[in-house]
Design a protein that fits this description.
Chain lengths: ~220, ~1000
């Protein structure tokens, strides 16, 4: 008698194979959907910080300029997180003994840095330059959202490459006059007005954001 | 293969002979992979693995890792996180300081350049200083004091040494000996005298295996007192080098190279360089005429030249070839009105230096092209001093021995057994970067601070006082040598800074000291301290021994061995530096080893071949080593590079567990003949040694045509050279129809216009390049290029983005050599881009051929399609050692501006795109447009001869645009119509018509 082409155990495995065939595409769709979802890209990521620093209070209610603390943003790649000394400029006099500032005082005394938790993170192979964007007229709000209304900072935009390119291909949607860059609440009167203004600024300052690979990767 | 004509270039002896090995290299860039049978992994297994990795891909990294930002509690003035800052400092090798400018990122040094303000550098540097970044981060460095292998503290040491010193104080230091590396530090001199006051009878010597005693002894013979020679090659029309590697390993060679190159422009009056040497050096390759001659006959050559200059016929027998050379050189020297320089190498005995001084004097060169400064305050150096100390040690009269920075247990001459003598010393202390051959024998091994971690000062070759400032706090529990000596004097409080300031204050005076100090620290040197040349010194009478015969022929019976400084590890001190070990030697292209270099005819006479193991016997001592055939090595001579065969260098250069790299030539080198010795016997022994030379790697050729001599035709097009006569006849000779023949070039694509915006380009002047490797090391440091190790170099996997091709021309025993740096040409019609299936290599609007590592899937199609063979593939994760905790410090050596590539990724030169971006940011911050010279690539910045020019071709008046417009400019492989952005400027030599056969006068 001729040998059967398929081994016998395949009969019982049929169910598994069918399940894989049926489930595979669903799995693929879910995997891709999940991978590309803003949640995976960390939108909304809002870690606890060692010091309950409120951007809403400082940048919003008190109206401190972003650059009082992030003073390297116009010159350098990093919008550096300020040294403890910047906090203590005011807080040696204001709330000098507040419990919430204990970590800051400790850092000031010992010289040990405050371990802030990074909210906005790009992959290591991306070299983002804050200064280039600020000088070009892109406001903080375009990437970081209304930090001045956030009690605790969270990520607003996906910070994905596609999202970066949206603006690099059409910067007019985000360009604003130099004096409005750090005014997070500022908005053009309408979407059309923004585009018109953006195009005008783009032309005036010769802004041609590059979409070459080496612009960000090297 | 048809016989090679005198006119064609060849790359190696393998090619010349049409060896199978070379053909393999041509056919297969990465040769261990069999092209025909792609993979041993079956297709099925591949599908299984791929399936599994796709499934698993979704499970990893659902979230970013939590990451902390740690700002400084107090940010220093002027500090911008992530923004580079530059500090001037200096590095001292053998008592000569090299002025440097070091880039610091977030508190650590990341890149070293020459100090642009100092005349000895003007911004250029060399391999040794470039490699220092890795040297500082070396995880094998000594980290804390040890006594008999047990970890101790500095307090323990000072407590233990106190009774020893107290005992010596009673004896006025009779039993105290100090062996220091050569240093020109005034602080050390001052502390040494302090110590001498406390211990008047102590012995203090300086020891350098590659010292300059011959230079000073020779000038002492000639002028009655030691003098330091300075050569101003800008003023020299004719330069004669007698075994002097002035453009490679020579004190002050950065300046010499620049000055020499400044006279290599065929549109102006060119200089002419004659080189007489035994081993082929970078200088020999740059020469207009080179005479391979035994080092031991160079003294006779100098005498004969002097005789001939005086119009007399040389007494001793000089063979026809040498006589013709001497005649030509002498007539040329005499006709230049004193605008000449005759220079001897430091390995030549004092008499040769004295003769050179007398020749220069008689030609009227002294005062212009040759100048002297007085050499005073020299400490006893050299073999004599070391011998004295070792005799004392053996006699048991040294009770306390201090070795500062030197490593005599390894590099002392073979007849001065320092290592054994150490056993007879009561207390021996070694202060060095590593627990090396000396340190591991000493009772106390003290870790020394790296120059990037410590304060100091030293004299550059021109005598100017350069400062050394730390770029980072010592990574380990280390002290600098001056801090240690101060500690021995009981000065435990002062830091290096205070000591240096005290020493300088004593010299400079207190008047306005702080502001002078601040300015000097900023500039890197004290202004106006370069030594003033002595007015033309009078020649003293001295007698040279009777000259011997001069013969340029092979004579295998009486083999001469010369001991040469190594282009990678110098005297062995850089043996644990992977960047330098993997650097192909200028001429032999050998990495990770030294070998006995023999000329082809000499080797044939001895019956040995490339890679054979031989036993070299010299004065009763023998050394087993491998043979490397070196075209142009003088007949009857062999050359051995020093600095290899280390047994306690570390995990790179060899320690107890890791086999030594190369062969220890010091075992043959005696104090009587440290430069070269005659009478060696070479016998073949069993074994074949794999030599990792890169000379045949990345060969550009059409392998199908190899049999028909296709590569020979092509080499003429790759490297184009002519003579001044050719240039005068047709400045565009490099692009003449004789050289290039191809149909009209038509593009398959609609070509991109680069008429506005930046258009980056590069020009490499082959007339200036000396092949010194400074650019290659600079590129490694700037671009985080991994070290792959010897076994991978043997497979053709070295990762250098920039390689220097070296070609020969002519007779294998006396060829000309040329060097050609090749890097990514950033082709406008880049063939690599067209074959990448994932668009990982793309063209930028400014004409850069971008490489996107995070997209690359490693098909290697691009490398296959690259006609220049400049793409490099990460066959392994060459950085995986970094995960090892003990290698933590290695991470500091990386440039944070450049991605660290992992396994399976292709990489190549980017034109230093990170520097372009940074230059642009600086210009923006200053509110201006980019200017020419704002941006320099790492290779360009390091180059001592200014051979590399980088810039914007669209910028009117830019230096690179001018070079591209030169009639000498040519594109390599232009017939492919890839439109490279790197153009070469053809070499134009300035041969002496008398020495060129009529048929050859047209190059």
């Amino acid at each position: 008698m001729a040998q059967p082409i398929f081994p016998k155990w395949l009969n019982s495995a049929r169910l598994v194979i069918l399940a894989v065939l049926a489930g595979g595409p669903v799995y693929a769709v879910v995997l891709l959907g999940y991978g590309a979802s803003p949640k995976t890209l960390n939108v909304g990521y809002q870690p606890d910080q060692p010091v309950p620093f409120s951007h809403k209070l400082h940048a919003g209610d008190l109206g401190l300029d972003c650059r009082y603390c992030h003073n390297t943003v116009e010159k350098a790649y990093h919008a550096a997180v300020p040294p403890t000394a910047t906090c203590l400029n005011c807080h040696t006099n204001i709330h000098p003994s507040s419990v919430r500032l204990a970590e800051v005082r400790k850092s000031g005394e010992t010289g040990e840095p405050i371990p802030w938790v990074r909210v906005h993170k790009l992959p290591d192979y991306v070299y983002f330059n804050h200064a280039a964007h600020i000088q070009g007229g892109v406001s903080c709000v375009s990437c970081h959202g209304r930090v001045d209304t956030m009690e605790k900072v969270h990520q607003v935009e996906p910070l994905s490459m596609g999202w970066c390119l949206e603006c690099h291909r059409a910067p007019e949607n985000h360009l604003r006059p130099a004096d409005k860059v750090f005014e997070l609440a500022w908005k053009a009167d309408s979407e059309e007005a923004q585009i018109a203004l953006g195009l005008e600024l783009k032309d005036k300052h010769n802004i041609n954001p590059s979409t070459d690979c080496s612009t960000c990767h090297r | 293969m048809p016989p090679l004509t005198e006119q064609s270039y060849w790359q190696s002896l393998g090619e010349l002979a049409g060896s199978e090995e070379f053909k393999k290299h041509l056919e297969n860039e990465f040769r261990d992979i069999d092209i025909e049978n792609p993979s041993s992994v079956s297709r099925r297994r591949f599908m299984q693995l791929m399936g599994a990795s796709i499934t698993l891909a979704g499970l990893t990294s659902c979230r970013w890792e939590k990451e902390n930002i740690l700002p400084q509690a107090v940010r220093g003035e002027g500090v911008i996180p992530g923004f580079p800052r530059r500090f001037a400092t200096s590095m001292e090798i053998g008592g000569v300081s090299r002025p440097l400018l070091v880039t610091s990122r977030d508190g650590r040094p990341t890149k070293i350049e020459g100090n642009p303000l100092h005349a000895a550098s003007l911004g250029s540097s060399d391999t040794f200083s470039q490699g220092a970044i890795l040297g500082m981060c070396d995880p094998d460095r000594a980290k804390h004091p040890t006594a008999d292998g047990k970890e101790k503290s500095w307090d323990d040491f000072f407590a233990a040494i106190k009774p020893v010193l107290d005992a010596q104080r009673g004896k006025q230091g009779q039993g105290l000996a100090v062996v220091s590396e050569a240093t020109s530090s005034e602080t050390m001199a001052w502390l040494r005298e302090e110590l001498r006051r406390a211990f008047p009878k102590m012995t203090w010597i300086e020891w350098e295996p590659l010292g300059l005693e011959n230079v000073f002894d020779g000038t002492a013979m000639a002028y009655g007192a030691p003098h330091r020679p300075h050569y101003d090659l800008r003023q020299a029309d004719v330069i004669v080098s007698l075994d002097a590697d002035i453009l490679g390993l020579f004190p002050d060679s950065a300046r010499l190279t620049r000055d020499w190159a400044s006279r290599r422009d065929p549109d102006a009056a060119m200089n002419r360089l004659y080189v007489v040497e035994s081993a082929f050096s970078a200088t020999g390759a740059s020469a207009d005429h080179r005479l391979p001659l035994r080092s031991s006959q160079i003294a006779s050559f100098a005498l004969a030249l002097e005789e001939r200059l005086a119009g007399r016929t040389p007494k001793a027998g000089v063979d026809a070839k040498a006589m013709q050379f001497i005649d030509a050189v002498a007539d040329d020297l005499k006709s230049r009105g004193g605008r000449v320089a005759v220079i001897a190498g430091p390995q030549q005995p004092a008499i040769v230096h004295a003769l050179c001084a007398r020749i220069n004097d008689s030609l009227g060169a002294v005062g212009d092209a040759v100048r002297y400064t007085a050499e005073t305050g020299r400490v006893a150096t050299g073999n004599a001093g070391l011998r004295q100390v070792v005799e004392k040690m053996n006699a048991g009269s040294v009770e306390a021995l201090f070795v500062l920075g030197a490593n005599p247990a390894y590099d002392a001459p073979a007849d001065i057994d320092f290592a054994t003598a150490m056993g007879k010393v009561g207390t021996s202390v070694h202060c060095g970067l590593y627990s090396d051959e000396t340190g591991s024998r000493a009772s106390w091994q003290l870790p020394q601070s790296h120059f990037l971690e410590s304060w100091g000062e030293a004299r550059a070759w021109d005598g100017s006082w350069t400062l050394r400032q730390p770029l980072v706090k010592p990574l380990h529990d280390t002290k600098s040598a001056i801090e240690l000596v101060a500690g021995l004097l009981g000065r435990t409080e002062p830091t290096g800074l205070e000591l240096v300031k005290a020493a300088m204050g004593a010299k400079l005076g207190t008047n306005d000291f702080e502001s002078r100090w601040a300015k000097s620290l900023h500039d890197g040197f004290v202004a106006g301290t370069a030594a003033a040349p002595v007015a033309k010194p009078a020649i003293a009478r001295f007698e040279a021994a009777a000259p011997g015969a001069i013969s340029t022929d092979a004579d295998g019976k009486d083999l001469e061995i010369s001991f040469v400084a190594d282009t990678s590890v110098w005297d062995g001190r850089f043996a644990n530096n992977g960047w330098l070990q993997e650097l192909p030697d200028f001429m032999s292209k050998l990495t990770w080893d030294n070998a006995l270099l023999l000329g082809e005819s000499t080797a044939r006479g001895l019956g040995v071949d490339q890679g054979d193991m031989v036993r070299v016997t010299l004065r009763g001592r023998s050394l087993d080593c491998a043979v490397l055939l070196m075209p142009g090595q003088a007949p009857g001579t062999g050359a051995l590079a020093l600095g290899y065969g280390r047994t306690k260098a570390g995990t790179v250069g060899g320690d107890g567990e890791v086999d030594p790299v190369g062969f220890d030539a010091y075992r043959l080198r005696t104090s009587t003949a440290p430069g070269f010795d005659v009478g060696a016997k070479v016998e073949k022994i069993d074994g074949h040694y794999p030599l990792a030379t890169t000379q045949e790697h990345h060969a550009i050729g059409d392998f199908q045509d190899t049999a028909k001599g296709g590569i020979q035709d092509r080499l003429k097009q790759l490297y184009r050279a002519g003579t001044v006569a050719d240039y005068a006849e047709n400045p565009g000779f490099a692009n003449s129809a004789e050289v290039i023949h191809h149909p009209e070039l038509k593009s398959l694509w609609k070509e991109h216009e680069y008429d506005h915006g930046h258009k980056w380009g590069m020009a490499i002047d082959l007339n200036k390049c000396v092949g010194c490797n400074a650019c290659v090391t600079a590129c490694v440091s700037e671009n985080n290029i991994p070290v792959v190790g010897k076994s991978d170099v043997l497979k053709g996997r070295e990762m250098h983005w920039l390689r220097i091709d070296r070609y020969f021309k002519g007779d294998a025993n006396d060829p000309q050599a040329v060097a050609q740096p090749v890097t990514c040409m950033q082709c406008e019609n880049a063939p690599c881009e067209q074959v990448c299936p994932v668009a990982a290599t793309m063209h930028s609007a400014e004409g850069l051929n971008d490489m996107v590592y995070n997209r690359c899937v490693g098909t290697r199609y691009c490398a296959n399609n690259c006609p220049y063979k400049v793409r490099r593939f990460n066959f392994f994760n060459y950085h995986k050692d970094l995960k090892d905790e003990k290698n933590e410090t290695l991470k500091l050596a990386f440039n944070p501006d450049v991605t660290v590539r992992s396994r399976g990724v292709m990489e190549k030169c980017t034109f230093c795109v990170q520097r372009i971006k940074f230059g642009r940011q600086v210009a923006k911050n200053e509110g201006r447009e980019l200017r020419d010279g704002d941006i320099s690539s790492a290779c360009q910045q390091a180059c001592p001869s200014g051979a590399i020019t980088f810039g914007d071709l669209n910028l009117a008046g830019s230096a690179v645009a001018a070079k591209h417009a030169s009639p000498r400019a040519y594109a390599m492989l232009q017939e492919l119509n890839v439109k490279p952005r790197v153009l070469f400027l053809a070499r134009v030599t300035n041969p002496n018509p008398i020495l060129v056969p009529k048929a050859e006068q047209k190059g």
